[in-house]
């Protein structure tokens, strides 16, 4: 499915199962890229709402800009994790940055348990220090 129009990033969505009405803690996983942003136009998702769930965004390549109704302005970069809690309701947008030539990442959608569906909306960014061992790094 295209994310933001026909000439932008395509997303492959993985559902655990289609038949049951409740699919478990992970609603689904969206995988996008690797996409040549110069050719395809990148990600350009206008403001849209989320409720009763969390999204965890993790990039392998590229950079995206996140803005939301809490007033958060953050970037999603490789090796970092952005966690957005919809709770009672949050609206946000996601756009590839001008520096991005290739975009590749995943977004995990987490169903909040019933007692937490109306929790406060939130946004957190985790940027761990790089780990290097025996010539390899993450």
UniProtKB/TrEMBL annotation:
Record has Kinase as a keyword: no
All copies of domain Pirin N-terminal, residue ranges: 9-110
PANTHER family in alphabetical order: PIRIN, PIRIN-RELATED
Entry-linked SUPFAM superfamilies: RmlC-like cupins (SSF51182)
One Pfam family here: Pirin
Protein name per UniProt: Pirin family protein
Family stated for the protein in its record: Belongs to the pirin family.
Alphabetized InterPro entries for the sequence: Pirin, Pirin_N_dom, RmlC-like_jellyroll, RmlC_Cupin_sf
Alphabetically ordered keywords of this record: Plasmid
Coiled coil: none
Keyword Endoplasmic reticulum applies: no
């Amino acid at each position: 499915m295209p994310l933001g129009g026909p000439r932008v990033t395509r997303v492959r969505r993985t559902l655990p199962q289609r038949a049951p009405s409740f699919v478990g803690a992970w609603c689904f996983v969206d995988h996008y890229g690797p996409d040549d942003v110069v050719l395809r136009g990148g990600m350009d998702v206008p403001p849209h709402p989320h409720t009763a769930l969390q999204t965890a965004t993790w990039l392998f390549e590229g950079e995206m800009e996140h803005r939301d109704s809490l007033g958060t302005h953050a970037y999603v970069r490789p090796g970092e994790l952005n966690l957005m809690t919809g709770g009672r309701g949050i609206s946000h947008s996601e756009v590839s940055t001008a520096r991005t030539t290739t975009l590749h990442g995943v977004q995990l959608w987490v169903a909040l348990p019933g007692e937490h569906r109306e929790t406060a909306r939130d946004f957190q960014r985790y940027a761990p220090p790089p780990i290097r061992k025996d010539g390899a790094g993450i």
